[in-house]
């Protein structure tokens, strides 16, 4: 930005620089602007960064303070320069800082004169102030503005001017909290200023537009400061346009008359003596009272009693907190009153209020901690008392109300003891939060208890229904579903009655209560339906078990022995009919006591559909199984569709066919075993053809002995060779095996006989007994071996001494 050189408009002694102003106007070509120009001025405490702000905001070159040489006066009098790069032409005036030590505390006339001159000449007045000075009397220029307002309305015809408060070194306090304070202070100043009769009721807004902006610290946050200044600079473009930053421009003089108008205004201000009013007493009172207040504030922070009280609060609630803290605060305020008694009353009272406010701000976090301890303690006491009351069997709602009232009452008592006399802080919000916490805990416990009750009765229903329903479906018959309905109704009513009594202590609304009871009834029905679906999934296994039970056991539940007299066809039909009954029972859910013809349909289609006559009669029935729904049965109640029944029946018959075949085979084998005698004609042929041989045996009994010995030898070979076991694997493998074992077996028998022949005579009796015993054993073992077919060969000693 190209900045024009600054020119001193009025020097430090109050002399108006006529030649310098004329030269400045010609240099910046102000005369050519007509009415399209604006005047901006800045006022504020000395060394508050006014010149720095103007140079950054408007591109001027006002002299700035060198911080390394100390804080001192930089700008003397009033300086003027043109803003660089801003249209329309904007002239800015830099005023000497107020409250400077160079002029002293009694020489405030020039401050008031320059401030009044700025308000009279400017369209926009920037009031530069530190953020921490907000709320203070002198540092915020309140007395100065009050005097200037009063004199201005008397000396000049006021026009609408924009007062822009520029808050420097903004702290963490939000701007929306600072702006109302400034606006309220300006309004109070305006209301307190004596006004001419014509403007008695005129509001502040008729003469001033109040704007508030905040800037960060130039030294600590330079980049952020420059960014905010750049944004503020944009507001000064076209400031004199309608709606612009400048006022309504009433009484504005042409640019070529600016120097003359400014000189006349300064002369009028210089001649007015009201601006020389002394303020020494107020200034002294302000400084001393603030020093005393700061001392008392520091003393309070270092107070041992306060420190102990603050530390005690960190660990828990403190009995008598409000009384103790009020005493400490009152002691600090009393000390202030004693030391500031002789200073100006208004200043003294104002500083006392500020001190008290600072002290209360200091102790408020500790007070909030106390309230927090009281609230958390009351909540824990409520939880413990509530749980104890519930464990003792008291009603839920009555316990909740009584425990809540008791705990809140104790909390209120604790708050009364914690309240500070000087503050009278409201504890309503903390109490409301406690009430919300208690209500939330009650709601949480209510949900938990109701959930536990629901789970309890649901588990009871599970135990009461699952097993019996499974057993009833396992023994499916015509009374299965009526029995299930009766069981469901009985157990459901018991559960609903129990839950209804348990919920009576919760004082819940009727709609919620009815919904819970209805849900329990639906849960009971759901258990039955779920168990029915599970059993339907095992229908094939159940059918096969029932078929096996009926087919393989008689009416006395004894295993059947297929002797050849049983009617296998009738037994098979009876077993299949029972299995079909089970299938028809499991096909659909029958909880509504509605009749159906599923069993009849299945019987006609699957059991009675064999044979030529039955085939023509059951065509329509078979066709009815080619469907995914049962007639007059809702789809959601169907467990096994007609098509699935047909498929299950086909699979069932295939898997039970083997059992029937085995029974038939066993019956035929039994018949063959019972017919061991040869036919009569064979017996007759044996008698006729074997008559001569029979007579030969009668004539010579020695042959009987030979036959008997041959029988014994043959029996021994049969056992030793395990002939029946060898032929189990086939004729050819058996012959081959016997051919390899025959000769060793014969040799073994002969060796045994030789050993027996050489035995001593004294052992003849023993040998005879042993031989007899051996024969008996051999006969027994031979029978056993022939029946089992797998016994190993044994050596049977044969006594030939007889």
Automatic annotation (TrEMBL):
<keyword id="KW-0342">GTP-binding</keyword>
<feature type="topological domain" description="Cytoplasmic">
    <location>
        <begin position="1"/>
        <end position="677"/>
    </location>
</feature>
<feature type="domain" description="GB1/RHD3-type G">
    <location>
        <begin position="34"/>
        <end position="249"/>
    </location>
</feature>
<feature type="topological domain" description="Cytoplasmic">
    <location>
        <begin position="723"/>
        <end position="802"/>
    </location>
</feature>
<keyword id="KW-0812">Transmembrane</keyword>
<dbReference type="InterPro" id="IPR030386">
    <property type="entry name" value="G_GB1_RHD3_dom"/>
</dbReference>
<keyword id="KW-0472">Membrane</keyword>
<feature type="topological domain" description="Lumenal">
    <location>
        <begin position="699"/>
        <end position="701"/>
    </location>
</feature>
<keyword id="KW-0547">Nucleotide-binding</keyword>
<dbReference type="InterPro" id="IPR046758">
    <property type="entry name" value="Sey1/RHD3-like_3HB"/>
</dbReference>
<keyword id="KW-0378">Hydrolase</keyword>
<comment type="function">
    <text>Probable GTP-binding protein that may be involved in cell development.</text>
</comment>
<dbReference type="InterPro" id="IPR008803">
    <property type="entry name" value="RHD3/Sey1"/>
</dbReference>
<comment type="similarity">
    <text>Belongs to the TRAFAC class dynamin-like GTPase superfamily. GB1/RHD3 GTPase family. RHD3 subfamily.</text>
</comment>
<protein>
    <recommendedName>
        <fullName>Protein ROOT HAIR DEFECTIVE 3 homolog</fullName>
        <ecNumber>3.6.5.-</ecNumber>
    </recommendedName>
</protein>
<feature type="region of interest" description="Disordered">
    <location>
        <begin position="756"/>
        <end position="802"/>
    </location>
</feature>
<feature type="binding site">
    <location>
        <begin position="44"/>
        <end position="51"/>
    </location>
    <ligand>
        <name>GTP</name>
    </ligand>
</feature>
<keyword id="KW-1133">Transmembrane helix</keyword>
<feature type="compositionally biased region" description="Low complexity">
    <location>
        <begin position="763"/>
        <end position="774"/>
    </location>
</feature>
<keyword id="KW-0256">Endoplasmic reticulum</keyword>
<dbReference type="InterPro" id="IPR027417">
    <property type="entry name" value="P-loop_NTPase"/>
</dbReference>
<dbReference type="Pfam" id="PF05879">
    <property type="entry name" value="RHD3_GTPase"/>
</dbReference>
<feature type="compositionally biased region" description="Low complexity">
    <location>
        <begin position="782"/>
        <end position="791"/>
    </location>
</feature>
<dbReference type="Pfam" id="PF20428">
    <property type="entry name" value="Sey1_3HB"/>
</dbReference>
């Amino acid at each position: 930005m190209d900045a024009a050189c600054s020119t001193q408009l009025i020097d430090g002694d109050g002399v108006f620089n006529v030649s310098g102003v004329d030269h400045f106007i010609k240099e910046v070509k102000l005369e050519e602007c007509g009415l399209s120009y604006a005047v901006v001025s800045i006022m504020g405490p000395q060394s508050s960064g006014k010149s720095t702000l103007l140079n950054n905001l408007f591109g001027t070159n006002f002299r700035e303070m060198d911080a390394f040489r100390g804080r001192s006066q930089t700008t003397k009098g009033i300086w003027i320069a043109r803003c660089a790069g801003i249209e329309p032409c904007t002239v800015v005036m830099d005023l000497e800082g107020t409250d400077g030590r160079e002029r002293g505390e009694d020489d405030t006339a020039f401050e008031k004169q320059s401030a009044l001159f700025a308000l009279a000449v400017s369209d926009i007045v920037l009031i530069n102030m530190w953020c921490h000075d907000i709320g203070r009397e002198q540092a915020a220029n309140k007395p100065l503005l009050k005097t200037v307002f009063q004199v201005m309305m008397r000396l000049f015809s006021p026009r609408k001017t924009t007062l822009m408060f520029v808050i420097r070194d903004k702290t963490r306090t939000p701007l929306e909290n600072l702006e109302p304070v400034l606006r309220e202070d300006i309004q109070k100043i305006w209301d307190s200023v004596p006004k001419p009769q014509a403007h008695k009721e005129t509001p502040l807004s008729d003469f001033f537009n109040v704007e508030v902006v905040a800037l960060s610290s130039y030294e600590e946050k330079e980049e952020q400061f420059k960014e905010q200044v750049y944004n503020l600079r944009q507001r000064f473009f076209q400031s004199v346009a309608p709606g612009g930053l400048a006022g309504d421009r009433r009484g504005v003089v042409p640019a070529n008359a600016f120097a003359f108008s400014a000189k006349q205004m300064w002369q009028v201000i210089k001649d007015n003596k009201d601006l020389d009013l002394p303020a020494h007493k107020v200034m002294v009172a302000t400084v001393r009272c603030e020093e005393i207040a700061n001392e008392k504030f520091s003393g309070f922070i270092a107070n041992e009693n306060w420190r102990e009280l603050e530390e005690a609060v960190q660990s828990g609630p403190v009995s008598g907190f409000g009384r103790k803290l009020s005493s400490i605060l009152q002691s600090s305020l009393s000390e202030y009153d004693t030391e500031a008694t002789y200073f100006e009353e208004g200043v003294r009272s104002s500083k006392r209020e500020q001190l008290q406010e600072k002290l209360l701000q200091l102790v408020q976090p500790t007070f909030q901690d106390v309230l927090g301890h009281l609230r958390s303690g009351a909540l824990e006491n409520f939880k413990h008392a509530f749980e104890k009351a519930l464990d003792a069997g008291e009603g839920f709602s009555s316990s909740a109300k009584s425990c809540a009232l008791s705990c809140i009452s104790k909390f209120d008592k604790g708050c009364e003891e914690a309240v500070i006399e000087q503050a009278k802080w409201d504890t309503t919000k903390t109490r409301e939060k406690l009430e919300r916490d208690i209500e939330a805990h009650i709601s949480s416990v209510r949900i938990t208890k109701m959930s536990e009750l629901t789970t309890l009765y649901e588990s009871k229903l599970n135990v009461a229904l699952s097993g019996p329903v499974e057993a009833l479906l396992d023994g499916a018959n015509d009374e299965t579903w009526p029995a299930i309905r009766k069981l469901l109704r009985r157990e459901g009513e018991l559960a609903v009655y129990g839950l209804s009594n348990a919920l009576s202590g919760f004082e819940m609304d009727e709609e919620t209560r009815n919904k819970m009871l209805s849900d329990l009834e639906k849960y009971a029905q759901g258990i039955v339906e779920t168990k029915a679906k599970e059993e339907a999934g095992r229908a094939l296994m159940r059918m096969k078990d029932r078929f096996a039970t009926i087919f393989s056991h008689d009416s006395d539940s004894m295993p059947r022995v297929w002797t050849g007299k049983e009617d296998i066809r009738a037994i098979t039909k009876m077993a299949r009919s029972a299995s079909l009954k089970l299938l028809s029972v499991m096909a659909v859910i029958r909880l509504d006591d509605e009749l159906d013809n599923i069993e009849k349909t299945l019987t006609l289609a699957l059991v009675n559909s064999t044979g030529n006559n039955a085939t023509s009669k059951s065509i329509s029935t078979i066709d009815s199984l080619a469907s995914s729904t049962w007639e007059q049965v809702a789809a959601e109640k169907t467990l096994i569709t007609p098509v699935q029944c047909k498929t299950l029946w086909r699979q069932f018959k295939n898997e039970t066919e083997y059992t029937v075949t085995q029974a038939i085979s066993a019956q035929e084998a039994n018949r063959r075993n019972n017919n061991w005698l040869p036919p009569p004609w064979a017996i007759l042929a044996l008698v006729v053809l074997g008559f001569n041989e029979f007579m030969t045996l009668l004539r010579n009994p020695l042959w009987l002995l030979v036959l008997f010995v041959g029988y014994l030898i043959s029996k021994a070979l049969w056992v030793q060779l395990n002939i029946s076991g060898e032929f189990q694997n086939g004729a050819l493998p058996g012959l081959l095996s016997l051919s390899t074992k025959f000769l060793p077996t014969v040799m073994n028998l002969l060796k045994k006989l030789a050993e027996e022949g050489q035995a001593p005579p004294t052992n003849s009796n023993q040998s005879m007994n042993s031989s007899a015993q051996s024969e008996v054993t051999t006969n027994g073992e031979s029978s056993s071996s022939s029946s089992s077919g797998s016994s190993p060969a044994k050596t049977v000693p044969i006594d030939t001494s007889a």
